[in-house]
Amino acid sequence: MNFGSKLIHNGNEIDKNTGALSIPIYQTSTFHQYDIDNLGKYDYTRSGNPTREALENTIAQLEGGIRGFAFSSGMAATSSVLSIFSSDDHIIVGNDVYGGTYRIASSFFNKFKVQITFTDMTDPDNIKNSIKNNTKAIFLETPSNPLLKITDLRTCIKIAKDYGLIVIVDNTFMSPYLQRPLELGADIVIHSATKFIGGHSDVVSGLVATKNKDLADKIYFVQNSFGAVLGPQDSWLLLRGLKTLKVRLDYECKSALELAQWLSTHKKITNVYYPGLKEHIGSDIHLSQALNGGAVLSFKTDTEATAKKFMKNVTLAAVAVSLGGVESIASYPVKMSHAAIPVQEREKLGITNNLIRLSVGLEDTQDLIEDFKKALE
Length: 377
Ligand SMILES: *Cc1c(COP(=O)(O)O)cnc(C)c1O
Known about the structure:
The structure is a single chain. By secondary structure, the chain is an alpha/beta fold. The chain has 14 helices and twelve strands. The strands form two sheets. A seven-stranded mixed beta sheet has the order 1-7-6-5-4-2-3, with helices on both faces. It has a five-stranded mixed beta sheet with strand order 8-9-12-11-10. It starts with a helix and ends with a helix. The structure holds pyridoxal-5'-phosphate. This is cysteine-S-conjugate beta-lyase. It comes from Clostridium oryzae.
């Protein structure tokens, strides 16, 4: 079955108890036990809930895993996955991972003596050079944020396997429709489902999928004991959002490519970062591991003043953090997602004050172009 059909028919779309075509929101904390000698499948919602379970089984199917987990945010998902490691374990993390991931890796898990090395994984040799005796895993994100840098998943996975390391991929920017790292050999995939999976800017949530039984048991232990679970109502919102993932992304990615091409020709735009453009560094690698360039792009304007003018005058994109919604969202990384990084460090990474990131929504492409044209004038 192809992906679009799988979104609608994956075995978790009908409520087994009632036949309801929309999985009911089992808004309950606990479950009556009819027979104390034969306890039922569910006992308490932190440990398991039918609405959440339908979502967890769905993400497992869509990513090609054996088990899925839903958490109260993308960061809860990432933190819970990193909690399967122990003190003195060493993890290699991409140096331009999501800011929140950088924060917990650099100033939270170190309290528990989990060792982290940050490195630029766009050059996979850096992984080899960072491996120590106690290295247990690599954690990466591709394309990265906000410059859409590309990491070669197959090469990184091959190196990790040679050294017996677990590969964890934050797949938020692509979603399982565009990129499925488990199918390429990764062990764990993480999503901020707040973004494309939810798709409507109305829920904060995280998902995890794995294809390894031992890792699944470890993640379930953390999910149940740490307890950062997703509630039934929010689980339902994700099940609903997921059904249109393909049609949303088909339109948004096509629109993003057209916008990237149009921006490339604009005289006030100096750089466009979009993995669907042939001239984007690593675009060939990206297109060998993902379906298309995705729905997020970044661009640099001639001056900081132009960038600020754009952010002030744009009307068809919300000025906000986050991405992946039905509405386009323009963000200004130096004042938003990357404000906490010291200026010099930021400049080194190419995150300058003329950089704008755009998440392309479902507005008519031509309307977006007209609006952006005006905002840049
Ligand atoms: C937003 C985001 C996160 C964090 O997810 P939350 O749902 O905000 O906690 C993690 N990784 C990436 C790539 C993101 O864009």
